[in-house]
Amino acid sequence: MQFQFQNIAAQASKHALWLVSEACYVNTGTVLYGNARPVAFLHDEILAEVKQELAHECALEVQRLMVKAMQKYTPDVLVKAEPALCRRWFKSMEPVYGKDGRLRPWWPADWSWEPDRAVMEVDLAA
Fold first, then answer.
1. CA 71, CA 102: separation in Å to the nearest integer?
2. Domain extents for the chain?
3. Residue 65 in contact with residue 79, Cβ under 8 Å?
4. How many whole angstroms separate alpha carbon 64 and alpha carbon 88?
5. What is the DSSP string of the chain?
6. Residue 45, exposed/middle/buried by CB under 10 A (0-12, 13-18, 19+)?
């Protein structure tokens, strides 16, 4: 049966979610095992809760698995995935790296909700 590209991309995205879930719950040889869990799958994004101290490593492993899954279905297409960290999900989030070269949580420039202020200031100073 012949499918259009959208179906192939959807199959690859579901495969990526499977690989990430397997790494989180079954594969003891990955940083995701015991340190992360997927909580939402939004179109082509896997949202996961991760332990803060391993967030950078977990994000890079999720990125690797997503690229691996897509390459299986589209071997002749350049595949990229962009990891990002946040304390709250924002549609416009982007990867942000701290002075140490590690991913740090992204915050919108206009975010001013008082309960987030203290942790936001720490994140932005990193």
1. 26
2. 1-83, 84-126
3. no
4. 23
5. ----HHHHHHHHHHHHHHHHHHHHHT-TTSTTTTTEEEEEEETTEEEEEE-GGGHHHHHHHHHHHHHHHHHHH-TTS-------B-SS--TT---EE-TTSSEEB---TT---GGGHHHHHHHHH-
6. middle
Q: Give Cβ neighbours of residue 54 (< 8 Å, ≥ 6 apart).
A: 31, 35, 36
Note the pLDDT tens digit of each residue in 31-74.
999 999 999 999 889 999 999 999 999 999 999 999 999 999 98
pTM equals 0.91
Q: At 87, which amino acid appears? A: R
CA–CA separation, 36 vs 24, rounded Å? Answer: 6
CA distance 84 to 95: 4
